[in-house]
Automatic annotation (TrEMBL):
<dbReference type="GO" id="GO:0015679">
    <property type="term" value="P:plasma membrane copper ion transport"/>
</dbReference>
<feature type="signal peptide">
    <location>
        <begin position="1"/>
        <end position="19"/>
    </location>
</feature>
<feature type="domain" description="CusB-like beta-barrel">
    <location>
        <begin position="321"/>
        <end position="396"/>
    </location>
</feature>
<dbReference type="Pfam" id="PF25919">
    <property type="entry name" value="BSH_CusB"/>
</dbReference>
<dbReference type="InterPro" id="IPR058790">
    <property type="entry name" value="BSH_CusB"/>
</dbReference>
<comment type="similarity">
    <text>Belongs to the membrane fusion protein (MFP) (TC 8.A.1) family.</text>
</comment>
<feature type="domain" description="CusB-like barrel-sandwich hybrid">
    <location>
        <begin position="198"/>
        <end position="316"/>
    </location>
</feature>
<protein>
    <submittedName>
        <fullName>Cation transporter</fullName>
    </submittedName>
</protein>
<keyword id="KW-0732">Signal</keyword>
<dbReference type="GO" id="GO:0016020">
    <property type="term" value="C:membrane"/>
</dbReference>
<dbReference type="InterPro" id="IPR051909">
    <property type="entry name" value="MFP_Cation_Efflux"/>
</dbReference>
<dbReference type="GO" id="GO:0022857">
    <property type="term" value="F:transmembrane transporter activity"/>
</dbReference>
<dbReference type="GO" id="GO:0060003">
    <property type="term" value="P:copper ion export"/>
</dbReference>
<dbReference type="Pfam" id="PF25975">
    <property type="entry name" value="CzcB_C"/>
</dbReference>
<keyword id="KW-0406">Ion transport</keyword>
<dbReference type="InterPro" id="IPR006143">
    <property type="entry name" value="RND_pump_MFP"/>
</dbReference>
<dbReference type="GO" id="GO:0030288">
    <property type="term" value="C:outer membrane-bounded periplasmic space"/>
</dbReference>
């Protein structure tokens, strides 16, 4: 790049900075982004004069505040107390890097003596690329390589950046904290009956249906409601034997096994007590509902004959119901028994039901690679019906607080997971970590960092290129006697 072109670029940059400073000055504000320019001019104005400095020449680029404050103007102006702004010409030295980042210009003076006492190891690339040199050199943009002295490279994994680069790159860091992490898992599900609340009404002997109560499939019944009246010769015979034994017991004869036989035939205790009280055997027996619920099936009509074991009715208590969610096997590790869940019905938008995970089924469906997760829901309002479709949201996460960092802090290369530790004073260190649960924009760290460590959450310049990342992970820097290949544009 020619000297003329470089001078033109510097003039354009200074003119833009002067215009920004003028706007800030008219509003009585100082622009933090111009702090580097201010420091450069202040350092130049307070530095010891060099022998035979060249006289400033060329057109005026802009005007600066006479006190060195961060106020600039593109044309002549005065301060509030009447003093003129000082002109800055195009030929004057302009640098946007902190003075401490530039190598010493003179072999004399205290600064040169301090640098001479330190051992120079090598020169590193000014842009942070994994390129070093044992001798001074420039990169392809004409920027000087920066010296690295003994003590500055004690840890080969540490990346050291100048304050100017950190400010321009937008580095932000955040402390590692302990907090709970939750990640809701959203999956489809279906409403199913609680298997423990289903009852089948059946006889244990052959019987004839004398009369069926006016209940139908889908109707609700309460425990003890009459369902059907039957006539069973076997039950009638066992009842007659029971009456005979009761009468004989009054004469001192021990009671036989007729009572037990009636119980074995499924005769309800209320009917047995009635026979014992009246000493009479009813011609027909009333069969009643064993629980509250709805009628799922009705398999009888008046006059039909039922064989032993045939189902007369099938009842279900729907006050508590299940929702079976299909969870992908990749999410199973994040779900635990007792985890909270929210059920939303597709047929009732805006309606939600709260429940808890009661069981994770011990098999994975081969076709869908999902596992059933059972959620128990209070359904005393009766809004949930069997086979309804539902949207399920299961809360997952760590049981207690864990070390966590933002997702943006983790660099995942596919084989390694790394965070960049902010060690202060412009030093950054890549650290390999082990990850845990993710959720709420955070990720748990099980190994690699400690509470209170600061991690970089916004520093794309550290991982902008694959070469930068690999160099950071393997340790930046090279022995002084080695000269790595120069990166060319």
């Amino acid at each position: 790049m020619s000297r003329t072109l470089l001078a033109g670029l510097a003039l354009a940059a200074v003119t833009a900075a002067g215009a920004a400073g003028y706007v800030a000055g008219t509003r009585g504000l100082a622009l933090p982004g111009l702090d580097r320019l201010h420091q450069a001019f202040m350092a130049r104005s307070t530095a010891a004069p060099k022998a035979g400095p060249p006289t400033a020449a060329g057109p005026v680029a802009y005007y600066r505040h006479p006190d060195g404050a961060l106020f600039y103007a593109p044309e002549p102006r005065k301060t509030e107390d009447g003093r003129d702004f000082l002109p800055v010409r195009a030929s004057e030295e302009i640098s946007f890097d902190p003075p401490a980042a530039r190598p010493a210009q003179s072999a004399a003076g205290p600064a040169a003596a301090t640098e001479a006492e330190r051992k120079l190891l090598y020169y590193r690339n000014p842009m942070g690329l994994p390129d070093t040199s044992p001798v001074p050199k420039k990169d392809w943009m004409g920027m000087d390589y920066l010296p690295v002295y003994a003590g500055e490279d004690a840890d080969g994994k540490v990346i050291k950046l100048s304050p100017g680069r950190i400010q321009r790159s937008g580095v932000r860091s955040q402390a590692v904290l302990r907090q709970a992490i939750s990640r809701p898992i959203r999956v489809p599900g279906t409403v199913q009956l609680d298997e423990r609340r289903i009852s089948v009404v059946a006889t244990r002997s052959d019987a004839f249906i004398q009369e069926v109560a006016p209940v139908t499939t889908g109707g609700r019944v309460a425990k003890g409601d009459r369902l059907v009246r039957i006539y069973s010769p076997e039950i009638t015979a066992a009842g007659a034997q029971f009456v005979s034994e009761l009468n004989a017991a009054g004469r001192g004869v021990p009671e036989g096994g007729a009572r037990q036989r009636l119980e074995n035939l499924g005769v309800q205790p209320e009917i047995v007590a009635e026979i014992e009280r009246t000493r009479k055997v009813p011609l027909t027996i009333v069969w009643s509902a064993p629980r509250d619920g709805i009628v799922l099936e009705r398999n009888v009509v008046d006059g039909m004959r039922m064989a032993s074991g045939d189902s007369l009715f099938r009842l279900a208590d729907v006050s508590m119901i299940w929702v079976l969610a299909d969870v992908p096997e990749g999410d199973l590790a994040a779900i635990r028994i007792g985890a909270p869940a929210i059920i939303r019905l597709r047929g009732r938008p805006g309606t939600e039901f709260a429940g808890k995970v009661g069981l994770i089924y011990p098999q994975v469906a081969e076709a869908t690679r999902t596992t059933k997760v059972r959620i128990e829901i209070d359904n005393r309002a009766g809004m949930l019906l069997p086979n309804m479709y539902a949207d399920v949201e299961i809360g997952s996460g760590e049981a207690g607080p864990v070390l966590a960092v933002p997702d943006s802090a983790v660099i995942d290369t596919g084989t390694r997971r790394v965070v960049i530790l902010d060690r202060g004073e412009g030093r950054f260190e890549p650290r390999e970590v082990r990850l845990g649960q993710r959720g709420d924009g955070m990720v748990a760290i099980s190994d690699g960092v400690s509470e209170g460590d600061r991690v970089v959450v916004s520093a794309n310049f550290l991982i902008d290129a694959e070469s930068n990342l690999k160099a950071a992970l393997s340790g930046l820097g090279a022995p002084a006697e080695q000269k790595p290949a120069e990166i060319k544009p």
